[in-house]
Amino acid sequence: MKRTVLRKVLVGVAVALVGIQLVPVQRSNPPADGAMALPAGEVGEILTSACMDCHSHETVWPWYAGVAPVKFLVAKHVNDGRRNLNFSTWATQELSRRDHKLEEIVEVVKSGEMPEGSYTWLHPEARLTDAQRYALTAWAEAERVRMSAPDTAAAVPADSVADPMPDSAGAAGAGDGGRAERD
């Protein structure tokens, strides 16, 4: 009797798992109209490896994003990420919204909320070191300053702004703003 019930439960679970595979999930990469020009160097690499999969229309959909029930979670994460911050529509957003998003980048990266642990668990290349967190937040802060400057100063890319790292945080390499120690 117990085996019959167990068998029916297992068959039911198997049918449900097969059936759920037939439920479609939108996995698309719309055109990147108004995409942010990523900064050159380390910050651009950090944004690409740790942010762009969920916060742009350049998502690399892994194989498991097509297998239920994981496909529902991945699609939800990407949709939520794009809705919250989308580098592919950056230039089309109001300046005040971009400023606010840069402020949020500083907050969530400093606190360790981003990138999310569920993402870095499967994407170890997205795990940020303290130096990478510092570089990303320094870039976001510099970008906020650049965006609020008069039009003539706004043409200067944020990655060319002097490193705002305090002297006490890294005195190595006097002429390099402490980068030798962080790299």
Structure characterization notes:
- The protein has 183 residues and is mainly alpha-helical.
- It has one domain (31-159).
- The chain has helices at 2-20, 42-50, 70-84, 95-111, 117-122, 130-148, 151-154, 179-182.
- Helix 2 (42-50) crosses helix 6 (130-148) and helix 4 (95-111) runs antiparallel to helix 6 (130-148).
- It is elongated and about 80 Å long.
Order of helices and strands: HHHHHHHH
The whole-number mean of residue pLDDT values reads 83
- Major sheet summary line: none
Number of helices: 8
Number of domains: 1
Alpha-beta content class = mainly alpha
| Number of beta strands | 0
- Please report which band the strand proportion falls in: under 5%, 5-15%, 15-25%, 25-35%, 35-45% or over 45%: under 5%
Query: Helical amount among residues, as a percent range?
Result: 40-55%
Principal-axes shape call: elongated
Radius of gyration, CA atoms, in whole angstroms: 22 Å
Termini separation comes to 65 Å
Low confidence ranges: 152-156, 158-183
Tell me briefly what this model is.
The protein is mainly α and 183 residues long.
